[in-house]
Amino acid sequence: MAQPDTFGRYRVVRRLGSGSFATVWLAHDDLLDTPVAVKVLAENWAHQLDVHQRFVEEARILRQADSAWLVRVHDLDVLADERPFMVMTYADQGSVADLVARGPLPLDEALRLLTEIGQGVTALHRHGTIHRDIKPSNVLLQSSPVGQRVLVADLGFAKSIDGASGFTAAAGTPGYMSPEQSQPGGDIDVRADVYSLGAVAYELVTGRRPPPPPVRVPPRRVRPGTPRALDELIMAALSEDRSARPADAQTFTDRVRAIRMEQDLPEGVPWRLRHAAAVRRTAGAAAVVAALAACSPAAAAAPGFTFGRVSDTTGSVSVALPVEWADELQPNGWSPRQLGLVGGHEPGLLAATDTDAWRDGGSTAGVFAGLVSRSAPGPELEEIIDAGPCPGEPRRREYSDEHWGGEVWEWDRCPGRSSFAAAAVRPHAGGPVLYLEVRQPSPRPDIVDQVIAGTRASA
Fold first, then answer.
1. Is Transferase one of the keywords (predicted)?
2. Do residues 420 and 289 share a domain?
């Protein structure tokens, strides 16, 4: 639909998104001088009585539940064409799905989010409602004076607990819904939402969606260092047998909170996961690099290799590397939080022979380069590397050229006899810290130095 000027007294700013049944708009309440989100039933469903009633019921549940962990409904009205719209809390930081798409999270942050999601689901259960569609895109994030707030949203599939014990139509999102939800006519209870919480937990911890049931690969196998108590809790929540799951969202949430408080959680994200969720293949990356190879001043500096240049999507990070390494390119940035550092989404890129295999090492070769923070005073590699990606202690050396100064750590005994180098450097003239990783089939410190020397970053 075309952008309207207003919905009632609410002045429309822009569209936020659309689904099968409704469109959500960012609007402004001029009377109270505050932004709001306005959810409007789609035109093609305007005369479907059951859909109309479900839309109104969603607004009613959210209004009556009135929890700090749920999206709040402030108003409900009807347009001239009889389509209902609800006025809700505006979540200015997007959704948990947006957060996960940037890369795996430090465990403490993942468990903090999971605890707050669980509190929202618990509020619904106390109200007598089963959500039936808990997933990262239905959990919104809002700025607040005390930090980020989690808001469970989208109750389009919600059903009363009393009405769910009999005939229930199949509803939910594959990958997040319990096995019993996929069976038309099956009865469900609050443990269906516990399964969904387990699925969200699996994704927050590993950066991957859980496989279809039965889930046989525990999070600990994907993310080494995951506490055993958390591993066991997630697998129990994802059990096909609902009697083996935690009894309800409150029980699940209490156990998550206890694990977060009692465990000595690793601060960063394991090496093998750092780039897994952020990888996006770009066809023809090698051809792009090869076309620019002749322009690279590094081309004659490393015998046996022709160097070319690749950049991230913002143009803030540019790397010179052997063209043979640039079969695939992920230019969409990264999050320093993957290393346990401060920072949001920063410019960065990964160019490699196989970006999917980058996290596992082996025979892949390539370069990762990313800005750590545009205002950070450091960091040193000691702050970044909590455990080596390869066996043994690294060789540590200072690095300096005409542009960069910093340090390099190198490992030579990596899987498949490959080598790995990590560097943290800053321009002598001042500017953002740059973190680099270089994988290659055999130890070549001269190649590492050429990559660093040919890399450029702008604030």
1. yes
2. yes
